[in-house]
Amino acid sequence: MNRWTGRADDLDDWLEQLKHEPELMDNVTHWHTIPPREARTSPLPYDLDSKLKAALQDRGVNELYVHQAKAYQAVREGRHVVAVTPTASGKTMCYNLPVLQSLLENDDGRALYMFPTKALAQDQVAELQKLADIMEVDIKTHTYDGDTPPTVRTAIRNAGHIVVTNPDMLHSAILPHHTKWVKLFENIRYIVIDELHAYRGVFGSHVANVIRRLKRICKFYGSSPQFICASATIDNPREHAERLIGEQVTLVDDNGAPMGEKHFIFYNPPVVNQQLGIRRSSVLETRKLAGMLLRQGVQTIVFARSRVRVELLLTYLQELIKDKVNDKTIRGYRGGYLPKLRREIERGLRSGEIRGVVSTNALELGIDIGQLQACVLNGYPGTVASTWQQSGRAGRRQTSSVTFMVASSNPLDQYIIQNPEYFFNRPPERALIHPDNLLILIDHVKCAAYELPFEMGEKFGSETLEDMLEFLVEEKVLHRTGNRWYWMEQSFPAHGISLRSAAQENFIIIDMSEGSRVLGEVDRFSAPTLIHDEAIYIHEGVQYQVEKLDYHEKKAYVRQVDVDYYTDANMAVELKVLHADKERISGEIVRTYGEVTVNAKATIFKKIKLRTHENIGSGPIHLPEEELHTSGYWFSFSEEAAAGKGTNEMQCALLGLANVLVHIAPVYLMCDPLDIRVVPQVKAVHTQRPTIYFYDRYPGGIGLSERLFDVHDELLERAHKMIRNCTCLSGCPACVGPIEEVGLLGKTQALQLLEEAGAGR
Amino acid sequence: MSAFRDRFNRLRGQSASTETAAEQTTGAAEIDERELSAATPDQDETDSDRGGRLDASASASESEQTHTSMSLPADVLEIVPEWEPHGVRLARNESGEFLLKETRYPVSYQHGIHAFSEWGEASSSLAAFHGIEEVMGAGSHADEETTARLAGEEVLFLDLETTGLGAGAGNVPFMLGIAYFENGEYVVRQSLIRHPAEERAMLADLKERLPRFRYLVTYNGRTFDWPVMQSRFIMNGFGSRVWEPLHLDFLHPSRSIWRNTLVSCKLSYVEEERLGVFREDDLPGSEAPGRYFAYLADGDPQPLLDVFKHNEIDMLSLAALAIRFGHLLGGRIGEAFPIPTEPEELVRTGLWLERMGRHDSALPLLELVRTSERGTPAVWNRLAERDKRLGDWACATALWEKAADAAEQASGMLNWDAHVELSMYFEHRAKDIHQALHYGRTALELALSHPLSGKADSKRRKEIDALKHRIDRLLRKAGR
User: Fold this and answer.
1) Distance (Å) from the C-alpha of residue B456 to the closest C-alpha of chain A?
2) What residues have CB less than 8 Å from A666, skipping those under 6 apart?
3) How far apart are the C-alpha atoms of A487 and B166, rounded to whole Å?
4) A629 vs B14: CB contact, 8 Å cut-off?
5) What is the pLDDT of residues A323-355, one digit of tens each?
6) R_g of chain B computed on alpha carbons
7) How far is CA B12 from CA A267, A438, A439, A586, B8, in A?
């Protein structure tokens, strides 16, 4: 330690000091140290072009990590490959190397790179261009996205060796205009799909269909490209890749990259009310830890789960440095910031000018922000995979790094923080997609028909294609002549179909404080709870109040305000069963998987005071109801199990159980926590029994409920264990929910119900 | 199948009722109204665009003249009973079958103010659209007069009717109109496919004809008709380089000349306002796809007759427009057609001719603008900009002064561009700071003579700031 400034010499020194601060250490439930890892390498491949070899050596690369060498080998053998390696392990080399080698061998070859976001694409082009420049060869890499000026588009179409784009652009611009891309499609050798794990859920299901269309077009031009995919660590990389691209793939997951020592610290905020099981706010504790790191001069990234939290933490942390000269050293980052601002923040992080950043999972993807030294997670990010991804943002090859995970009081966080072995020993979640979701599939059948007429005997997804085509003929979208189906409609189908969510358009937020300017945007599903009339919307740490939400024009008009509260909205949900597909009985519980209809409506919002987080008022929300037809899974208790419980008691038991389940269900799914919803009913219309419903929040479903149906027994066992092992007396936010919500006996009732039903014995 | 349909309808039915629910809670009437009002302007536009102002003169002139159809060798054309009354027959080649209508117009035919007999003279000047090297091959430098001539029979006119918008892969040209001059006749050849599978045969027929042409004439064909054709050739396996013509897309010169004098530069406006062509009961182009879908459904030719007619008139007007531009480039303005009366059109025509290298034709027109009594500051400024570029400061300042006077006298017209130009001229060229200051200040007065309002005036605010800046600088200079 420097005795004059009180600053630690380096991170190791600081961590050592930390161990001697009982105040903090009391809250540390687990301190996991991952020892440094030596590099495991292979020599550069013998068949590597001498120019490429020289360029690599020029950049200090004299050998490859084993995973890079294995990926290269597999690609050279003509196989489809998925490489799975953690953040900062040099995974881009897994695909850049074989692609560049191939282009050096044959100048006519082409490759298509697909990244989930534009920002990632731009980093990639810079990287490839650098290598090409060192080699002094004419390999042209271009991004082709919404920002590409029309004047250079033609040149890229004809002359770009490597075209870097995103699935949306492929869907709405490249594939429908494939005749302008003859050169690319005739000569395409490789399709690179990075951040494979990002293509899951609804988005992934859409992208799988875009890839079906892409393969169809390649086939038309006589090419059959090889796929090279790269993914963060997930439980099922090979299965996921195979479902996404519809081909058999070779898995490369033997990470050979070195890593400095890594500390993973689980931090549980202290209990402030034993009776109610209330802990100190995770936001305040996050502020404390991040503040300590920032004051030590450690470049730190803070991840928070919601946009509101990001803005709250940003406000708090910026207060810390208020007296310093430059207030631009701590920044926020999230979806809804405009691209230019994001690029500026990324640059600042790389250069080190920005010392702290508070982000949603928007920075979880491989955007190049350099490697930071410390990471503070405000709450468990929701999945094991995502936790490792976010934590990977801190971590350098040589020096140590630290990640704090600050638990919130929700049951999933409490479960993870109290069962660290579960987190460290468990494979990460599975990435689920459902490309044959009928609504998604039919949309892409239309797009595919627009791109190329369908022929008798063709395959597209698992549904019987001919049925779909005949259906579209009846809908007067296609025209059948002989054994072919032609697009015969005036519209351009890709324009009406967005890959990103069921919502076709985002709501834009317009700041009316001074003139009018677009502040940001939110998706349709979030709009009723985030930007209803009178909501407080926080952007870059500044509060805005929504003056008017124009629901039909999809615009919210806001004005800057300075108030000491934020808002939180409630949704009311009604549910009907349409059709039961699968049914199973275990113990006193019958569980079913099938189709449901859900009606949801935002009802009221609460005003919550900043810092103390107390409820200081509320108001109604007047917005139209949304109806959703989707897949669901539900289970109901037998009369025997329910015997002896009055309606009220059953209500508490179910609510308590539902509260636990909604939080631990994501353990089995790789999804946004909002993608799967839970509804308890004391006497369900469909079953006439006490029932708990789960449903996918997307029309037609995306496979989440189905997966839960399969792991039902384990799910209930975990719920039981969690409630039983919770230290609270009669229910707390970490298990069945606070007493105000589930009553004094909620915890007991829920436990009883589970035991009567034979779950968790 | 029915199980599939049931499932889909359930999904779709639900989502449809979502919308209904949304409408009910917020007032369905409001939505309907909004949709209607969104749809109506288009409707209005197309109506008045295409069929609003009809006149009998086109049909009158047509009926006076004779034209013969169905002149192809009989062995390739078969009779199809339902089409026979409409002059349409079945053509067949190795790739399949399609329908064909051929109409021949004698060169005496008068379409609006131009007759097709003018083509020979007019066409020879059209080569000016392409550089001499492009026309004659690299290395050519023979003098323009004798070599860069375009033979009238090398030109192919093209206009498509398609099932949708844009040049995406799913937009199919169901009717392909081509036309050319041959043996003293203007031949309009319209192909129609009875279903999409016939497209290949229609394209094969076109492909066979293309080699004898060197030039392609279209209206908006650079961004639409030709890219669509290239896409169709690729889609049907003919490759991407079937034909590489020298393209004359008359939309672009039409815009250069008539941008501010016509309501719109759509062909229907240009032909009516400048070529004297008046259509009767014309089908709006936007309705053509719907007519074709109706035909696909039941095979009744009736809905397509209007499409044939619409496309045919397009082909005729395209030729008339080509004649007009040929005359213009050949220096026959005032002989073959009247000199524009609007100074705005006059100056744009003159400047366009200059850009095309026709200085001798351009100068007299520009002189007319200089002396015109009806000019506006905008017109004079446009011409002055050209003088300034050429370094003709005397002419430029004379025009700016005229423009400045006019702007000062006119009330309600906010234009101080000339003042700014003069201020710059006196500051940097004439080195007369006093005069420069005078014009700078007058410009600022003009700019401030109307109250500023909100966001609409953000551009004016910026200009005002720039003017203040300019005056400050001039004052500093003057003080030195």
Assistant:
1) 11
2) A382, A383, A412, A429, A673, A676
3) 14
4) yes
5) 665 667 888 888 777 777 888 888 888 888 888
6) 28
7) 48, 10, 8, 35, 6
Helix (H) or strand (E) holding B119: helix B119-123
The pLDDT of residue B56: 32
Residue ranges, chain B, pLDDT below 50: 13-71, 73-75, 133, 138-148
- SS3 at position B291: helix
A532 vs chain B: nearest CA distance in angstroms?
15
CA angle A354, A141, A340 (to 5 degrees): 30
Number of neighbouring beta carbons within 10 Å of residue A6: 10
Q: Do residues A500 and A573 lie in contact, with contact meaning Cβ atoms separated by under 8 Å?
A: no
Q: Would the pLDDT of A403 be above 50? A: yes
Q: What are phi and psi of A177, to 5 degrees?
A: -115, 35
Interface test with B, best of A436, A487, A698 (most B CBs within 10 A): A487
* DSSP class of A675: G
**Is there a contact between B296 and A439 if contact means CB atoms under 8 Å apart?**
no
Question: Chain A contacts of B4, Cβ < 8 Å?
Answer: 463-464, 467-468, 471
In the chain, the amino acid numbered A140 is: K
User: What confidence tens digit (pLDDT) does each residue in A390-400 have?
Assistant: 888 887 677 88
Helix H or strand E segment including A632: strand A626-637
Say if B231 is an interface residue toward chain A (CB within 8 Å): yes
| Beta strand A226-231 pairing with A81-84 | parallel
Query: What DSSP character marks residue A430?
Result: P
Kindly state whether B76 is in contact with chain A, defined as any CB-CB distance less than 8 angstroms: no
pLDDT at A475 > cutoff 50: yes
pLDDT tens track for A258-273: 888 999 999 999 887 6
A177 vs A714, which has greater pLDDT? A177
- Amino acid letter, residue A351: S
Q: What is the rounded CA–CA span in Å between residue B458 and residue B262? A: 28
Look up the ipTM and state it. 0.80
Could you report the per-residue pLDDT of B352-364, keeping only the tens digit for each?
999 998 999 999 9
CA–CA separation, A357 and B269 (whole Å): 58
pLDDT band at A53 (very low <50, low <70, confident <90, very high): very high
Going by C-alpha positions, the residue among A537, A589, A557, A548 that lies closest to residue A712 is: A589
What's A38's DSSP letter?
-
- In this predicted structure, what is the pLDDT of residue B67? 46
Q: CA A561, CA A537: separation in Å to the nearest integer?
A: 10
CB atoms within 10 A of CB B113: 16
Partnered with residue A517 across adjacent β-strands are: A511
